[in-house]
């Protein structure tokens, strides 16, 4: 058995500081966060029927933090941040997430890496876009699923729209064509939670398509 590495007291001090900043108790240390930073992509910490949130090029720290908080509330297995334009460790992300940045398995990757990893793990991808014809409640999220949300200004790139298994939309009844990105993530995630909590056995098989 290899020798255990003792985490420096400075790291523990930082953990206490983070907990006081975000207002919740945080048992993970900064070292743990650094280890888990790539864990979801490199180790594949998944249950048998994972639910993943993928976000691409989110610009506003408040939105990213809210997405992380929502992801934790929905019980997702991980969040993948593609092509980041804001630092997930930005203090405003930490505050908006209410500390959930340190609770939700998190990875940062390129779009192509995320698409390949999801395909390799048999996870169906649902790309949210106003141009879709399928309403989000008609999508079947009961099997292994990843909900993909694009940037506030531009939405998802053509790569995601082309490679996603399905495109979904949230219907708008007013003049605007889309919700705030963090709100859209919450709507779609909790529809997935509703479907998975309905007690219906899923007949959706893992996505074995090779991309």
In short:
The chain is of the alpha/beta class. Helices cover about 35% and strands about 15% of the residues. Helix 4 packs parallel to helix 8.
Task: Describe the protein's architecture and organization.
The protein is of the alpha/beta class. The chain has one domain: Alpha/beta knot (3-Layer(aba) Sandwich), CATH 3.40.1280.10. The chain has eight helices and seven strands, in the order αααβαβαβαβββαβα. The chain has helices spanning 9-22, 30-36, 39-42, 61-74, 91-96, 111-120, 158-163, 181-197, and strands at residues 51-56, 78-82, 106-109, 124-128, 134-135, 145-149, 166-169. Strands 3-2-1-6-4-7-5 form a seven-stranded parallel sheet, sandwiched between helices. Helix 4 packs parallel to helix 8 (181-197). The longest helix has 17 residues, at 181-197.
């Amino acid at each position: 058995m290899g020798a255990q590495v003792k985490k420096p007291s400075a790291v523990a001090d930082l953990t206490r500081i983070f907990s006081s900043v975000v207002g919740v108790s945080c048992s993970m240390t900064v070292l743990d966060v650094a280890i888990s930073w790539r864990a979801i992509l490199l180790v594949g910490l998944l249950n048998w029927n994972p639910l993943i949130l993928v976000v691409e090029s989110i610009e506003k720290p408040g939105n990213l933090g809210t997405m992380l908080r929502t992801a934790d509330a929905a019980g997702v297995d991980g969040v993948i941040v593609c092509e980041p334009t804001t630092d997930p460790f930005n203090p405003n992300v930490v505050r908006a997430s209410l500390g959930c940045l340190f609770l939700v398995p998190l990875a940062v990757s390129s779009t192509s890496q995320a698409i390949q990893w999801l395909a390799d793990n048999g996870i169906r991808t649902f790309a949210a876009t106003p141009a879709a014809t399928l309403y989000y409640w008609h999508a079947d999220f009961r099997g292994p699923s990843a909900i993909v949300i694009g940037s506030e200004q531009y939405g998802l790139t053509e790569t995601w729209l082309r490679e996603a298994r399905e495109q979904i939309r949230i219907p708008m009844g007013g003049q605007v064509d889309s919700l705030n990105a963090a709100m859209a993530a919450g709507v779609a995630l909790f529809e997935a939670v509703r479907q998975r909590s309905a007690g219906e056995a899923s007949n959706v098989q893992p996505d074995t398509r090779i991309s």
